Amino acid sequence: EKLKVITIDGPAGSGKSTVARIVASKLGWIYVTTGAIYRTLALLFHEANIKDTDLENIERFISFISERYRQESSTGKVFIGEREITQEIKAPLVSELASILAQEDSVRKRLLPIQRKVVLNNHGAVVDGRDMGTVVFPDAPLKIFLTASAKERAERRWKELNQNGQKTDIKELLREIHERDERDLNRAIAPLKAAHDAISLDSTKSTQEEIAKAILQFAMQKD
Ligand code: C5P
User: What range(s) does the Cytidylate kinase domain occupy (predicted)?
Assistant: First the structure.
């Protein structure tokens, strides 16, 4: 049977996860935001007061995540066991730590089977991240590379955090986005880049619904 996966890669705040969720719900597929898995690992590191350089500790966290991590497709909520961590993993501190840990080969290697397992247990999936089309699902029949200007991305993050009652400074967010882009684009292993067979879309001036609609049209053409 054909692999039913649509990959959406792109930088922080490009709207990947919202778009992935819309597309998945239209197709009746699950959606998986793989950044949330990196963020969950970062949260566990942070709460255990472990430095991002102490990677010997990673093994127990990985098995913990592998057994207990769950993402609810209909709402996008993230759980570790019974505990909901959807908002906590969006905190700027966790974002930063996630992107630092994501530079490590040992981290990426261990998170790889978790990402594949979540998807392949299901009938069809829309997955978003940085290396979905290049590393995790290189055989996906439809790959999207979604971008938007850094300014637009910072504004979206600001709105999202603000809605959740987290006060942040837009200039600070813009600085963080640049810093994270820099790290994600330039790391040695699985850097953020479009797969050679990906379709690039720019969401700066489009709504997430419009982008989702375009992706659904590409999906129809592939069928
Ligand atoms: O997508 P999101 O911004 O939630 O991801 C958080 C961080 O996790 C990113 O900045 C990136 O460094 C890392 N990540 C990754 N590969 C993925 C998904 C996320 O390296 N597939």
Answer: 6-219
